[in-house]
Amino acid sequence: MNEQELKAYCDPGMVTKRWIDKHVAGSALCAPSNLYATAAFTHKILSEGITGCLVECGVYMGAHPAAMSYVCQTVGKSRKIWLFDSFEGIAERGEEDDTPRIAHLKHGDFRCSIKKVRENLIEWGIDVKVMRFAEGWFHETVPLAQVGAIALLRLDADLYESTRICMQHLYNKVVAGGFVVVDDWNYRGVQKAVRDVVGEIPQLLKVPGTECHFWRKERVIR
Ligand SMILES: C[S@@+](CC[C@H](N)C(=O)[O-])C[C@H]1O[C@@H](n2cnc3c(N)ncnc32)[C@H](O)[C@@H]1O
After folding, report:
1. How far is the CA of 139 from the centre of ligand 1 (A)?
2. Span from the CA of 107 to the centroid of ligand 1 (angstroms)
3. Does any ligand 1 atom lie closer than 6 A to the CB of residue 60?
4. Is 86 exposed, middle or buried (CB count within 10 Å of its CB: 0-12, 13-18, 19+)?
5. Is residue 67 in contact with ligand 1, taking CB distance under 6 Å?
6. Is 89 in the pocket of ligand 1 (CB under 6 A)?
7. By CB count within 10 A, which of 72, 128, 219, 222 is most buried?
8. pLDDT per residue as tens, the chain (222 positions)
9. Residue 221, by phi and psi: left (phi above 0), alpha (psi -120 to 50) or beta?
10. Which residue has the least CA distance to atom 11 on ligand 1?
11. Where do the domains of the chain lie?
12. pLDDT, tens only, 74-89
């Protein structure tokens, strides 16, 4: 797949991009292209009938779950959307988290309360009834959550151990054709956590203009 084809693959269309720009892009820590990709992948999941819920581990203000839900609402199809977060910010850095760019990160950074996330979603016109809030540290919530099949697994927790726990417990729930999206592929700890669980990834692609990488489980993207 060349760069132009990849760009088209990660593009949800003008109407959705306008909605993202207007409502949620200012509340995300990532570039708008990341949010566009989340919306585009959700579109594909719904139009191809890929079964399962939509999951983000590391939600901050709730921008990505909002983009997922917006697409479901516009298409008229409902999916459960899981939001895993401490709502108290990130965990402690470990020895694998030695990428210079994140050397300044400390426990509690990127905190956004669950109350604020709920308020955001309501303000953006999102139906919070489809949202499943899994509040707490991943090592406490992820292994016990009754998640079921997953169509989209989005990981955005910055650190090795946080990412590893999510991959270890949720990756086997991703269905064939489901999407796995890793926001911080440029962080050594995150990349190591993913590779420690899945090993080599046959077709790893990069969302153009971002550091976010993704693949589809047991499915070649053309
Ligand atoms: C970089 S922010 C997420 C950014 C968000 N996805 C966006 O694009 O705006 C990282 C999030 O992961 C959460 N987090 C990090 N490590 C965690 C852990 N071990 N358990 C629970 N939440 C964690 C933080 O609270 C924070 O909301």
Report:
1. 13
2. 11
3. yes
4. buried
5. no
6. yes
7. 72
8. 899 999 999 999 999 999 999 999 999 999 999 999 999 999 999 999 999 999 999 999 999 999 999 999 999 999 999 999 999 999 999 999 999 988 889 999 999 999 999 999 999 999 999 999 999 999 999 999 999 999 999 999 999 999 999 999 999 999 999 999 999 999 999 999 999 999 999 899 999 999 999 999 999 998
9. beta
10. 58
11. 3-216
12. 999 999 999 999 999 9
Closest Cα to atom 12 of ligand 1: 58
Q: Is the CB of 155 within 6 Å of ligand 1? A: no
Closest ligand 1 atom to the C-alpha of 165?
19
- How many residues can be counted in the chain? 222
Residue located via tokens 């796995």: 180
> Which amino acid does the sequence have at 63?
A
Both tokens of residue 104? Answer: 């300044």
Give residue 176's pLDDT. Answer: 98
Place of tokens 């697994």: 153
Architecture of domain 3-216: 3-Layer(aba) Sandwich (3.40)
pLDDT per residue as tens digits for the range 143-190 = 999 999 999 999 999 999 999 999 999 999 999 999 999 999 999 999
